[in-house]
């Protein structure tokens, strides 16, 4: 698919053409306003058109030792893959353009994520700032506009994919679904997936799900000089790039580990995770919890004479959640570098700051929507900058010392991997109620019935009977950060499918919670990863000697608000009974 036209956008200011305001250009040379050097930007865009990838070596400035952080793997999208369709065959719709109301609406959400970054998850329901965020974001989305019937319009957001609700009919944001995507079951219960809140048996060893969190209240690049330094170099003030963010000393960390309990905690996880880590752990929990294979797996029944292992068994799925991640990265890196080259939110914050506040009293009229600066989110960010630096500002407070990584925003690598990995988990394991013949049981609404999360089992010792998996929330109680039991009523509403979808949302939107991705980066990359995983599952069905059918429900919702039912066998992929509309979205 085509890009959104921002690469060709030129804004004339004081008789001079300014280029690249809607595009990634971190580590290139910038003027005092943070505008990219035209010659350097031309070299970058020319490099993205070079099918050999060699031209990236000529993008100025030259990479003298420690002058700039390296660009992150811009040639990965040029790689081939003999096990799936070529990465170049996948695509994403145009991202919202930089000057659109839709992008401004996304920025309102990012400002609120930064403002609420340290709020405990269990405090969301009653917090007055959350109520203010809900009202502000609903107004912003209404101003930004939502497309009708799920149609692709780069000037608008897509309900059923980008926004909670059905295709063509966005749902209203509430404290319960704020910063969520509306995936099936994902909006039920705590923000954090149950797959994040328990130890994981890794063979005879145990993976502790707790982490040492970043220190509350420590945000970065809120001063224009620090922001500009990061744009020019990719480094923070201590010479650390994104992979080593926040690691210069102990002052950036809290003193004790805890379960993920805030958006800053989620941002920390997705800064340091092994990319497929959350889904590998989820696979281990599903296997140890006694999850059954999908009914289309010949080893589904308890009375089969043989059992799956390297094929359609435990080692197969554990390897597959790693394997699909590498393919997902190739496909999305093609979109990042060779197609879209979208700017990061941190760069948009620079545009907003210079347009409204200016540099040394001089502002620049880029054309960002004026209504953005009248939002409650923007007013609060400006006030926080006034308190911290003695002058208002609209830079996006970042969770990481050097800001964003050195690659474009759209699509999102973490979200594409999340989409692919969670899809193979949903396809391999039985997540829906079936009858004795393995056929889906439908509820009163005519939809499949998800299995409860409590149908999985766990135990404290490596022997004896398993009890039903408990459900937990995380946050601050009685002045202590803790994991606590959920009430039975809420726990009974959680499903395995919903918690896997929530896991995908946590990782995808966790990147936005740190300030490095847009909502549309995340939502649309999930469906890209899902489509890619479907092709891999189709190949598996063709390659195994057994007859296998994979069935799962999609991330995206149709016009009725329900997920689509996907069935895959060796002959076809069907989505609600029809062939998928593209190679990139089911």
Termini distance?
16 Å
| Inertia-based shape | globular
**How are helices and strands ordered from N to C?**
EEHHHEEEEHHHHHHHEEEEHHHEEE
User: The biggest beta sheet, please?
Assistant: 3 strands, antiparallel
Radius of gyration, in Å, reads 23 Å
Summarize the structure.
This protein is α+β, with helices and mostly antiparallel strands.
Please explain how this structure is put together.
- It is a single chain.
- This protein is an alpha+beta fold.
- Helix content is 33%, strand content 9%.
- It has helices spanning 38-48, 101-115, 128-144, 224-233, 263-272, 277-288, 314-340, 345-356, 376-389, 413-428, 488-491, 496-513, 519-543, and strands spanning 10-13, 16-19, 165-166, 169-170, 200-202, 205-207, 457-458, 467-468, 472-477, 480-485, 550-557, 563-568, 573-575.
- A hairpin with a 2-residue loop joins strand 9 (472-477) and strand 10.
- Helix 2 (101-115) packs across helix 9 and helix 6 (277-288) runs antiparallel to helix 7.
- It is globular, with a radius of gyration of 23 Å.
- The two termini are 16 Å apart.
Q: What's the topology here?
A:
Blueprint: E1 10-13, E2 16-19, H1 38-48, H2 101-115, H3 128-144, E3 165-166, E4 169-170, E5 200-202, E6 205-207, H4 224-233, H5 263-272, H6 277-288, H7 314-340, H8 345-356, H9 376-389, H10 413-428, E7 457-458, E8 467-468, E9 472-477, E10 480-485, H11 488-491, H12 496-513, H13 519-543, E11 550-557, E12 563-568, E13 573-575
Antiparallel strand pairs: 1-2, 3-4, 5-6, 7-8, 9-10, 11-12, 12-13
Helix pairs in contact: 2-3, 2-9, 5-12, 6-7, 6-10, 7-10, 7-13, 10-12, 10-13, 12-13
